[in-house]
Design goal:
The structure holds 2 protein chains of 2 kinds. Chain A is α+β, with helices and mostly antiparallel strands. Chain A has 27 helices and 21 strands. The two termini of chain A are 66 Å apart. Chain B is α+β, with helices and mostly antiparallel strands. In chain B, strand 2 and strand 3 form a beta hairpin. Classes of the chains: A alpha+beta, B alpha+beta.
Chain lengths: 886, 103
């Protein structure tokens, strides 16, 4: 029953603390009364008896304290006392407290948001069954050095799955797109999609929300067309109508039967994918059997009893056999793998970690700043602390009290910061284009635990240094020190200066990283695509293969459209190309030059492929350097001509004119030699990627599967977007079922490509500027404090004849010393940081002199401005007044 | 007084009947023939500690002078505790005696 007694006491001392305290006093009183009575009984005078009793009893206050110290909840009481005391002191200087709380809120809020995103995107398992057992398998060309992962050919995938047994199963998917229409006859809509081998969903462990997934019989060429819808598309396009399962939809005017709907959690590989169709039917029979047509992504699941390293070795060995059997064709030698999660987050990993590191820096700077402010306040409360120490306040208690203050600041800042981070996280998740798994981002208990941890650590960081420093051995000297003392506070100033130097160091590191990122982003923005970007509108359309099944029909449509578009008002020129500059990869092809000896390595000669109409080059002003462009006569069967880019000519015809030479390259199903008729300027296929050799085929060849999906480029006299509707009307007036998509101006194409980079660069820059501001506040605080400390000294100097300019220099130099120390350390740190983020820089070296100079300049300027105010105040001190003070 | 024996003395004093603090002090003094002088003040922190630990419990009742006073009594756990404390005290004192007498 002892526990019951203890519990009773615990409750009693918690809920009846006041009553128990009163009873303790009553107990003492009773005791004293009895003692007095006894003393009186022994013949003492009443007054004398009382004094004797008190003497015998001891100091009631101390006894009271001692008795209570055995009570439970004493710590709570102490905490409450410290908290009240801390609150009172904080409320006494509201501007200081508000600044500190806001600074902390910013740091903690930003860190929490970034942590939420990093955790959700980089760390949380993918929403698949036992997702840690999933890997992506790629081909690997030995000559590929920097990025070893090459997409897979369908026949390779097929062989891997059939002939190796190390993995439990393997599945493949590829990107795909089509224009969907329903029978009700509304406007067609081009949707992104993907094609999956029948077993993809079972390999991933994903069950359909409605209906079923594909069967092996549907995953073959010539099978009746089947489609699965993603949840979002099912909701948005079909209003969540469950009866759609089993019905037909038309995609590219072909009927597809809806087999099932995927669950809402399934947004792989990205949310733009709205429908899934079986894998094999997206190929022509020849492609499906090819080892050298790379486009598929392969997912594999580990077997329980086979180590992954063994399994991939088996696949790689098989791939090497395939490579050797393929002669000169571009077939990879090896197979490599990486965890599926790494594959999904590949592009954002570094930027996210950079952002995380920069908010970490910012939080640290915020802590240092609060620490600095607390040290300053500690200085003004020095006497109070000293007196309390002299009266017996234990050092631990004094430290605890001071830390309580920084805890209060951190907790208030943390609460504010977490509230702020809810909206910040949401904003980041929705505004960050191309952030994979953005739908997985959410704040949960782990995040809140993390945030509390940050609050705790920040409180310690910010509070410990000032608390220890202000309660140190110097206590008594503080009492002896007179207000006039000149050396007072020097040691504390040294502490503040080192805190400041640390702050400046971190700020410089942040500034440099931000500068580098921003410069590479500016580089990207201004990168020259190789064609005009002014007043050019692009849009894509695709002709359904079923209706446009002969070259003549395809070419007929394109020509008719061009004629109509060119006659629109405000249109200066128009052309057609398979993919506009900056529009992406499209495809590449290896080739040989009949006039030259065959290369030792078949992969050596490779170029990106494009199809263009005769008017394309002049429409976007790609310069003709040699020879001629295509003419309308280079069409259908008389189209064995190619135009090459400057880099193609420089690389493969270094010392001769390529005109009249031939290129043997596969196009339209034929591997014929084709005559080079012209050389045009280089264009960038994707912003931020190096230029590659490029070869153009005549679009008017009407080659099957190659010329039906095109980009219209229209150059206008005025606002290009104004012709978007008229051009679309022309297209649908020719054929109602053709959908137009990706209607973009050239600057928009560049903007889309750089959106993600611009986002992270702007964020880091914002963090760096905030840190710079914090450092300025810190510097201002330190110098103001120093000047205040040295008023008397400055007065004496002036009285002895020092000039105001000398005083100014004295104070400025004093402030600049920690700045310079921090700057030097920060430059070293910045160099390291620059090297670490090298992989996400573009056109910018890690030690870029312009960035370094610019950042040093802006930091020094800020520092000078921040110290100018206190320095000017110092040199305006009136000596007589200064000396009369105190 | 020997360190740590105050608890033992308090528990022992309370075996017969509940007592208030003043009476406990007096009783110890009396029984020990005025040899053990309990520091009046240190008695109360000890009482409160024993109460928190559940060895004794307190009750407010009318004292012999007619005033309300806090009477402490042993709990069942306190009785067991007293036996243990007695045991260890006996062992300790015998040991000390052995050392002292051996000279």
């Amino acid at each position: 029953m002892r526990w019951w007694e203890q519990f009773r006491m615990t409750v009693l001392t918690l809920f009846h603390r006041k009553r128990e305290t009163a009873r303790l006093n009553a107990e003492f009183e009773f005791h004293l009364e009895r003692q007095i009575a006894e003393n009186v009984g022994n013949g003492m005078e009443p007054e004398q008896a009382r004094l004797a009793a008190l003497r015998l009893f001891g100091n009631p206050a101390v006894l009271h304290e001692e008795a209570r110290s055995s009570w439970s909840w004493n710590w709570l009481e102490g905490l409450w006392r410290d908290t009240r005391y801390g609150l009172r002191t904080l409320l006494r200087s509201p501007s200081f407290s508000l600044t500190a709380v806001l600074v902390m809120a910013l740091g903690i809020g930003a860190s929490t948001s970034l942590f939420t995103i990093v955790r959700s995107v980089l760390l949380k398992p993918l929403p698949f069954r036992e997702s840690d057992k999933l890997v992506m398998v790629y081909e690997h060309f030995r000559q590929q050095k920097e990025y070893p992962y090459n997409v897979v050919s369908p026949a390779d995938f097929h062989d891997w799955r059939e002939k190796t047994h190390g993995f439990q199963d393997m599945a493949a998917w590829r990107w795909w797109a089509g224009a969907i229409t329903t029978d009700s006859g509304e406007m067609p809509e081009v949707i992104g999609g993907a094609a999956a081998s029948w077993n993809l969903f079972s390999v991933l462990g994903v069950e359909p929300a409605l209906g079923r997934t594909f069967t092996p019989d549907e995953d073959r060429i010539g099978a009746p067309d089947a489609v699965m819808l993603t949840w979002n598309f099912f909701r948005s396009r079909f209003n969540g109508d469950r009866s759609i399962v089993g019905k037909r939809v038309r995609i590219d005017s072909m009927p597809y039967t809806v087999m099932g709907v995927l669950p809402a959690s399934f947004t792989y590989p990205d949310p733009e994918v709205k429908v899934w169709i079986p894998y094999s039917p997206t190929f022509m029979p020849k492609q499906l059997a090819a080892h050298d047509q790379h486009q598929s992504h392969v997912v594999a699941r580990f077997k329980k009893d086979v180590p992954p390293a063994i399994a991939i070795q088996e696949v790689s060995a098989l791939q090497y056999q395939i490579h050797q059997a393929s002669g000169n064709r571009p077939v990879a030698e090896d197979a490599v793998m990486r965890p599926m999660l790494d594959d999904v987050v590949d592009d954002v990993k570094t930027p996210l970690l950079v952002l995380m590191a920069s908010v970490g820096c910012m939080l640290l700077i915020a802590c240092l700043n609060v620490s600095n402010l607390l040290v300053a306040r500690g200085a003004s409360r020095r006497r109070e602390v000293a007196i309390r120490g002299a009266l017996g306040g234990s050092r631990l208690k004094l430290i605890r009290e001071q830390i309580t203050e920084s805890f209060l600041i951190s907790v208030a800042g943390g609460a504010l910061g977490i509230a702020f981070s809810f909206s910040a996280t949401h904003w980041l998740a929705t505004h960050w284009n191309d952030l994979p798994r953005a739908d997985a981002i959410q704040m949960d208990s782990t995040v809140l635990i993390f945030a509390s941890l940050i609050v705790f650590v920040s409180a310690l960081l910010a509070g410990l240094v000032p608390a220890i420093s202000s309660t140190g051995k110097h206590l008594l000297s503080a009492l002896q020190e007179s207000g006039r003392s000149l050396g007072g506070g020097v040691w504390r100033a040294a502490l503040r200066k080192s805190l400041l130097a640390a702050e400046v160091t971190l700020t410089v590191v942040l500034l440099i990283s931000a500068g580098l990122l921003f410069k590479s982003f500016m580089h990207l923005r201004s990168s020259d695509l190789g064609c005009t970007t002014d007043n050019v509108l692009t849009m894509r359309y695709g002709l359904p293969d079923r209706d446009y099944n002969t070259p003549a029909k395809v070419v007929g449509f394109h020509e008719a459209l061009l004629e109509k578009v060119r006659s629109l008002p405000d249109v200066v020129a128009a052309g057609l190309v398979s993919t506009a500059p900056g529009g992406g990869y499209e495809g590449d092809s290896i080739f040989t030059i009949p006039e030259h000896p065959a290369p030792a390595n078949s992969l050596e000669m490779d170029a990106m492929t494009r199809k263009a109409d005769p008017g394309y080059f002049s429409a976007v002003q790609i310069p003709l350097l040699e020879g001629r462009m295509f003419t309308p006569q280079d069409r259908l069967d008389r189209s064995n001509y190619v135009v090459i880019s400057k880099m193609f000519a420089d690389r493969y015809f270094p010392n001769e004119s390529p005109l009249g030479k031939h290129v043997r390259i596969e196009f339209g199903g034929k591997n014929d030699p084709r005559e080079i008729i012209g050389v045009v300027g280089d264009t960038v296929y994707e912003v931020g990627q190096p230029i590659k050799p490029m070869i153009y085929f005549p679009l008017f060849s009407g080659a099957a599967m190659q010329t039906t999906v095109v980009t219209v480029v229209v150059r206008t006299a005025h606002d290009p977007l104004a012709v978007a509707m008229p051009v679309q009307k022309q297209i649908s007036s020719l054929d109602r079922q053709i959908a137009v998509y990706r209607v973009l101006t050239m600057p928009q194409i560049i903007g889309r490509a750089t959106a993600s980079k611009s986002f992270s660069a702007s964020l880091v820059l914002a963090f760096a500027l905030l840190s710079l501001m914090l450092a300025a506040v810190g510097l201002y605080g330190v110098l103001s404090y120093l000047v205040q400390q040295r008023v008397a000294e400055i007065g004496i100097r002036m009285a002895l004849g020092a000039q105001r300019s000398e005083i100014l220099r004295l104070v400025l130099l004093d402030g600049m010393r920690p700045v310079v120390v921090g700057l030097i350390l920060g430059l070293l740190g910045g160099a390291v940081a620059g090297t670490l983020i090298k992989s996400i820089l573009y056109g910018t070296r890690p030690l870029d002199p312009i960035v370094f100079a610019g950042m040093i300049g802006s930091l020094l300027l800020t520092a000078i401005i921040a110290s100018a105010v206190p320095a000017l105040r110092a040199c305006r001190i009136e000596p007589t007044q200064a000396l009369r003070m105190e | 007084m020997v360190q740590g024996t105050l608890d033992l003395l308090i528990l022992k004093t309370l075996t017969l009947e509940p007592k208030h603090g003043w009476a406990i002090g007096k009783r110890i003094q009396q029984i020990s023939n005025e040899v053990l002088q309990v520091q009046q003040g240190s008695l109360y922190p000890a009482l409160h500690r024993l109460e928190q630990q559940g060895w004794i419990r307190a009750k407010w009742a009318e004292s012999e002078t007619g005033r309300q006073a806090k009477f402490y009594s042993l709990t069942a756990a306190g009785r067991a505790r007293l036996e243990k404390e007695k045991e260890s005290w006996k062992r300790l004192s015998t040991a000390i005696n052995m050392v002292v007498d051996s000279m």
